[in-house]
């Protein structure tokens, strides 16, 4: 066997090793994978083989190296990467509608299936968001404006935690692909946050309450309302308000966290 063939075989073995740890959830989305020296010991290969395997999974969208920090898990399967490429070619308003559908399904399913640990993570994310908005310069806050800026793929973001609490790995993969596209659109200024901090906290509070009380109806309605007024699309240099007829109809029907909070 030639050295080239041996090298290719070792890369395939390393690729399978890394991918199995990610697909199984042993290395969770948003988690740093072990450093190169540790991977070399775990797999029994050299540095160049590890780097080639990591590069192949980065191409699939499953890993993301961050210089000076390490390599993060970004997707459980290549589904999110392929979906990202597909959605990047679609109209952003259509992507927002797709995101809304996924999040409503996630919210109502999370109300049924969430664990106590997942509820605690949701509450912690909500409280970090409140802390950041009350004192954005605080060194004790590690939120970095994740819900108000462009880091909407942050592993501990409120929305992502709801999707995880649904218990559906496929839903999480699809959601990751959608939010990757929207994250890029926010970064480029095409998509904007169309909700105030106060309204966001009221919406998130309503979602947290519904999921905590396992109220499927309120979880779905809370997410429908929030998603409809959360993100908007810039067009012809004018803001297209994210508040849609669906959101207005929910408010007219009496479902409005702001009205509930003021009672």
From TrEMBL:
It comes from the Bacteria. SMART domains: FCD (SM00895), HTH_GNTR (SM00345). Keywords: DNA-binding, Transcription, Transcription regulation. Pfam families: FCD, GntR. SUPFAM superfamilies: GntR ligand-binding domain-like, Winged helix' DNA-binding domain. Residues 8-76 form the HTH gntR-type domain. Gene3D superfamilies: GntR ligand-binding domain-like (1.20.120.530), Winged helix-like DNA-binding domain superfamily/Winged helix DNA-binding domain (1.10.10.10). InterPro entries: GntR_C, TF_FadR/GntR_C, Tscrpt_reg_HTH_GntR, WH-like_DNA-bd_sf, WH_DNA-bd_sf. PROSITE patterns: HTH_GNTR. CDD domains: WHTH_GntR. PANTHER family: REGULATORY PROTEIN GNTR HTH, TRANSCRIPTIONAL REGULATOR, GNTR FAMILY. This is FadR/GntR family transcriptional regulator. It comes from Leucobacter albus. The lineage of its organism: Bacteria, Bacillati, Actinomycetota, Actinomycetes, Micrococcales.
